[in-house]
Amino acid sequence: MPKSPHVQPAIILVNPQMGENIGASARAMLNCGLTDMRLVNPRDGWPNERAIANGVGAFDKMFPVQVFGTVSDALKEFNYVYATTARPRDMVKPVFTAQSAIEDMRKRHTTKQKTAILFGAERTGLTNEELAQADAIITIPLNPEFASLNLAQGVLLCAYEWSKSQYSAPEKFLPTGDSIPVLHEEFDRYLSRLEDELEKHHFFRNPDLRPTLIRNIRSLYSRAEPTDQEIKTLQGILSALIGNKLQ
After folding, report:
1. In angstroms, rounded to a whole number, what is the distance separating the alpha carbons of residues 196 and 194?
2. What angle do CA 36, 41, 44 make, to 5 degrees?
3. Is residue 2 pLDDT above 70, yes or no?
4. Angle 151-166/98-109 helices, nearest 10 degrees?
5. Is omega for the bond preceding 47 within 30 degrees of 0, making it cis?
6. Nearest 5 degrees, angle CA 29-CA 3-CA 137?
7. Count of beta carbons in the 10 Å neighbourhood of residue 93
8. Per mean pLDDT, which range of 78-82, 87-91, 149-153, 231-235 is the poorest?
9. Which domains does the chain have, with CATH numbers?
10. How much is the pLDDT for 3?
């Protein structure tokens, strides 16, 4: 079962024209953990077979879609509403990026406020009258010469910011399976062996540069953060090259 809609923003599509876009928007929402979609005056009515097909099962895991005749009816139960627009309007309202809007929503949710995001029709976006009913505006910085987004793309950009606030992931992660970073003892053993073989094969032609070269080689391997298995592989490569197994 989806979570209570009161702990997440509702996504309200105003005058959506194509069922395919409604379905793609639902899919984008569920990808990002949002489950409350509402429609205002959908052109082809609701339920819509094309929307359900393009949702690829998303609607089965979301709250039942609510349909309203007007924007004002759709907004009655919300405390704070954000409207998306790519064009500057002559309205004095707070303007958020998608990320800052989600941060603002989460603060409001801690005080039991209900929030929603309005998206306009595919061809025209939200009208000034529809925008006027929102409390704030969300704008996404895009190429000013081509800022138009598909409806589902706009939903995905906002929903993804919600997803980032809900589902944590490390900024950097190196999956190593069962292998772990090599012990310094084994790392030093490999580097010492490599240094000996380089010496035997006259790599260090200038004795004065030898300490610097050795430090650089060590730094090169250190940056790679080798695992124990990778060092074993490097030992095997070295053995194959010199025809001498590691004792």
Report:
1. 5
2. 100
3. no
4. 50
5. yes
6. 45
7. 14
8. 87-91
9. 5-166 (3.40.1280.10), 184-242 (no CATH)
10. 54
- What are the angstrom distances between the C-alpha of 112 and each of 7, 24, 34? 8, 29, 17
Q: What share of residues in the chain are helix, strand, coil (percent, to 5)? A: 45, 15, 40
Q: How far apart are CA 11 and CA 36, in angstroms?
A: 6
pTM above threshold 0.85: no
Q: What are phi and psi of 5, to 5 degrees?
A: -65, -15
Question: DSSP characters for 126-191?
Answer: --HHHHHTSSEEE-----TTS----HHHHHHHHHHHHHHHHS---SS----TT--BPPHHHHHHHH
Percent of the chain scoring above 90 in pLDDT: 74
Q: Which two tokens stand for residue 43?
A: 């052109």
Kindly state the helix (H) or strand (E) to which residue 84 belongs, with its residue range. strand 80-84
- Under DSSP, is residue 61 helix (H, G, I), strand (E, B) or coil? helix
Which bin fits 15, alpha (ψ -120 to 50), beta or left (φ > 0)?
left
Mean of the per-residue pLDDT values of the chain:
90
* Token pair listed for 47: 């339920």
Residue type for 165, please?
Answer: S
